[in-house]
Amino acid sequence: MPLPSNTLRIAVMPGDGIGTEVTAATLAVLEPLAKRHGIGLAFEELRAGAFCYRDTGTAMSEETFEKAAKADAILLGAMGWPEIRTPDGTEIAPQLDLRFRLGLYAGVRPFRALPGVPLALADPRAREIDFVILRESTEGLFFSRGRGTVTEDMAEETLRITRPTTERLARFSFGLARRRAARRGRKGTVTLVDKANVFRAFAFMRGIFAEVAAGFPDVAHGTHYVDAMALDLVRRPWAFDVLPTENMFGDILSDLGAGLVGGMGFAPSADIGDTHAVFQPAHGTAPDIAGKGIANPTATILSAAMMLDWLAERGAGQGFADAAAELEGAVDAAFADGLRTADIGGGDGTAAAAKAVARRIGAAG
Ligand code: ATP
Ligand code: MG
């Protein structure tokens, strides 16, 4: 059968551990979805990660990188494995190199309470949790990765905030808040999370956000210290919308966010730059449950929905936006109807979860 004329090429990197399981489950859902919406998705599977390193001596070959960079989007499972390390003991994480090499500065991590999924907070308003952490992913404290100085008596790492990246992150934040506001029918709010009371780098960041905010009068704009935000994300997470922040703060608050909505299996993510984007679950390879067929594929399926949305925004067509919306709706419907994955104490494995979502594609239409 010929592919539809709007066919886009998706590089698929399943990676290691449960990465391969949740990726397979996601492809099993994307295939019927694409067919139903008449959108063309051509998947090219690429090998990279810890086991690739063990078998070939390189975690991601240059050829693989080139292929991934040429694709229209990259869908990734998870990479890394505790026992497989470089000779100096570093973990294998070629997905981090993708972030730096492709300039994927915006780490988009949405947190939403899905119907029926047990939540950490008893307050009924927790059902309204729907916020996005925007983790700057190329500088901040992680800029220091591999560059820190360690002597006998001292270890030092550097935090870097630059104007161009901060401006792009700010514009991305306000643009996202504006699009979410249109969708949700309420005013958007951008809250920069920082530690401007202690570090001048964050006062610098605040200044840039204030400049960019002037161009988005329709979006509310505020700031919050990261320690206070940790408190408030537990006390009233339903009050927040778009939360841009420095790399390390975003890393930490993202796990807190996942904890609020059912765990790592419910936390999708996208790493977006000006020209490329990688979509992957926020979790790792989970060696403790790998190979058992019980990993929750929801985070990866929702990451794929983000991918379809991003492709639509870049001009792939309304079919992609419709498919993204239907995919999210199908995930919601599956859980609302009783899907219970193992991580929330249920008996549904990876394949059963994918099947439950796939069955609901087209069900509403
Ligand atoms: P990384 O360093 O890559 O972030 P990690 O060591 O933080 O990895 P994860 O692999 O994210 O660890 O797993 C953390 C815990 O969450 C593990 O106990 C794992 O079993 C569980 N977990 C992660 N992802 C899922 C999933 N999709 N379904 C079920 N449980 C999961
Ligand atoms: Mg982790």
Descriptive labels:
365 residues, alpha/beta, Isopropylmalate Dehydrogenase, 10-stranded mixed sheet, two-stranded antiparallel ribbon, binds adenosine-5'-triphosphate, binds magnesium ion, branched-chain amino acid biosynthesis, 3-isopropylmalate dehydrogenase activity
Topology:
Elements: E1 8-15, H1 18-37, E2 41-45, H2 50-56, H3 62-70, E3 73-78, H4 94-101, E4 106-112, E5 130-136, E6 149-150, E7 155-156, H5 163-184, E8 189-194, H6 200-213, E9 220-225, H7 226-235, E10 242-245, H8 247-260, E11 268-272, E12 277-281, H9 298-316, H10 318-336, H11 350-359
Parallel strand pairs: 1-2, 1-3, 3-12, 5-10, 8-9, 8-10
Antiparallel strand pairs: 4-5, 4-11, 6-7, 11-12
Helix pairs in contact: 1-9, 1-10, 1-11, 5-6, 7-8, 9-10, 10-11
The structure holds adenosine-5'-triphosphate and magnesium ion (MG).
Adenosine-5'-triphosphate binds next to helix 1.
What is shown here, in short?
With 365 residues, the protein is of the alpha/beta class. Helix content is 42%, strand content 17%.
